[in-house]
Design goal:
With 72 residues, the protein is of the alpha+beta class. The protein has one helix spanning 56-69, and strands at residues 6-8, 14-23, 26-33, 36-46, 49-51. 10% of the residues are buried.
């Protein structure tokens, strides 16, 4: 069984880490809200900190790449 990793975001939202991926040299972390499995969140890692994305387009691009990587 795989260990589940949790992250608490700046708004105290508890999330489960689904995956990590690198796109264009940036490490992204794909999360899901621990209280709502339909609430996907993506953060990028900068200097060992998770920060929000700049635009909705960035979210869409990363989510699209994540979905393609899972063969969905």
């Amino acid at each position: 069984m795989k260990d589940v990793e949790f992250v608490k975001l700046e708004d105290n939202k508890l999330c489960i880490v689904l995956d990590e991926m690198v796109l264009n040299g940036i490490k992204y972390v794909v999360l899901v809200n621990a209280s709502d499995d339909k609430d996907f969140i993506i953060r990028k890692e900068i200097e060992d900190k998770l920060v929000g994305l700049a635009t909705d387009e960035e979210f869409d691009n990363v989510m699209s790449a994540y979905i393609k990587s899972k063969g969905v």
